[in-house]
Design goal:
Elements: E1 4-7, H1 10-21, E2 26-28, E3 35-39, H2 43-53, E4 63-64, E5 75-76, H3 81-89, E6 94-100, H4 106-109, E7 114-118, H5 123-132, E8 136-137, H6 152-159, E9 165-168, E10 179-182, E11 189-192, H7 198-205, E12 209-210, E13 234-238, H8 243-255, E14 260-264, H9 266-269, E15 276-278, H10 283-300, E16 303-307, H11 316-326
Parallel strand pairs: 1-9, 2-9, 4-7, 6-10, 11-12, 13-16, 14-15, 14-16
Antiparallel strand pairs: 2-3, 3-8, 4-8, 5-6, 6-7, 10-11
This protein binds adenosine monophosphate (AMP) and magnesium ion.
């Protein structure tokens, strides 16, 4: 199969619509990362998503709809705080996990009685979802376990020959996946951290908790137990207090002939010599640059040396969740 990469315009959206309504899968940009979408009603289309990614069959997909879509056709709202959350954060990088009305393919929900719904804010995503006007099941558009894509080229590198079309909307702004929030309980529970933080939700609802996303917590957040986000080079993650140790590790490996690169925030980068991918000064910049830097690292180095992020922002939780999974703690 040849994979087309097309800028988003009326013509490419028509092509995307034809593919989606015929049960094919299409890569598309959102404000978090690129998604790989298929019509969420059709088992066959959803299976193609799992196959193209090599994704484990028990990790449910998020369903995406446009801003004008009546989400309540798909889900039951059990708590009134949901309406406040919608008003504050929808459209945006927040996925809410609701009780499902059973309309979505069980392949997408992995047979759970809940379904995660997101309305992306990204203009290209909105245009795509409006054009197809059906719920689109979409995980991140990378090969399973690999670093999530934040450009169309990242998607192409992972999925070329496996998907017919990637819509190119430039680099994603947000840079890490949506916050996944369970809204089937009296207190909303964060199943995956992201740019909509616990503090932000507390301000709107008055309460919010983190799930303990461990391998044991299978039903709540099935995806969290898998290896994720890893670049193709070796990795080593250091604490912020371990700069000297990291420098020695850099030297030792460079002497062995390995191409080594650091990845860290601006403050840490000032203390380092040698090749360095600077993630930026604040949490939003760091989130925006994280996956792009991991992709760059695997293209230029055999070993990536990364540092913990601690900017004082609540967004650090989401960044560290990705970093801990992407990199091996030393
Ligand atoms: P991805 O599609 O790679 O962005 O991952 C989606 C994340 O949302 C995974 O961690 C899933 O486990 C989680 N998720 C999706 N649907 C549900 C659901 N119905 N219940 C709990 N977690 C979900
Ligand atoms: Mg993913």
């Amino acid at each position: 199969m040849k994979t087309k990469v097309l800028k988003i315009d009326d013509k490419s959206l028509q092509i995307a619509k034809d593919y989606i309504l015929n049960g094919e899968v299409v890569g598309f940009p959102t404000e978090t990362v690129y998604g790989l979408g298929g019509i969420a009603y059709k088992d066959g289309a959803v299976k193609k998503i799992f196959d193209a990614k090599g994704r484990p069959q028990d990790n449910p997909l998020i369903v995406h709809v446009h801003d004008g879509y009546d989400v309540d056709k798909l889900v039951l709202v059990e708590y009134d705080y949901v309406y406040k959350l919608r008003k504050a954060f929808v459209p945006g990088p927040l996925t809410m996990v609701y009780k499902s009305k059973g309309v979505i393919s069980p392949v997408a929900t992995c047979g759970l009685d809940t379904v995660g719904i997101r309305v992306p804010k990204h203009e290209g995503a909105q245009r795509f979802l409006r054009a197809v006007d059906v719920p689109v099941a979409a995980p991140s558009a990378n090969a399973s376990k690999h670093t999530s894509p934040v450009t169309a080229m990242h998607v192409y590198e992972d999925l070329k020959g496996r998907v017919p079309l990637i819509l190119d909307g430039g680099m994603c702004d947000g840079g890490i996946e949506s916050t996944v929030l369970d809204v089937t309980t009296d207190t909303p529970i964060i199943l995956r951290s992201g740019l909509i933080t616990c503090e932000m939700i507390k301000k709107v609802v008055g309460r919010c908790e983190y799930s303990n996303n461990t391998a044991k917590d299978k039903v709540r957040a099935p995806g969290m137990k898998y290896q994720h986000y890893t670049p193709k080079c070796k990795t080593a993650l250091f604490k912020r207090t371990e700069i000297e140790k990291a420098k020695a590790y850099y030297r030792d490996n460079a002497e062995k002939g390995l191409r080594v690169v650091y990845m860290c925030d601006d403050a840490i980068s000032r203390n380092l010599d040698g090749s360095c991918l600077n993630l930026g000064k604040n949490a939003n910049e760091i989130a925006h640059n994280l996956y792009d830097a991991l992709h760059k690292a695997e293209g230029m180095a055999d070993l990536l040396i990364a540092f913990d992020v601690n900017t004082g922002s609540d967004v650090d939780v989401g960044i560290m969740n990705r970093l801990e999974k992407a990199c091996q703690r030393i």
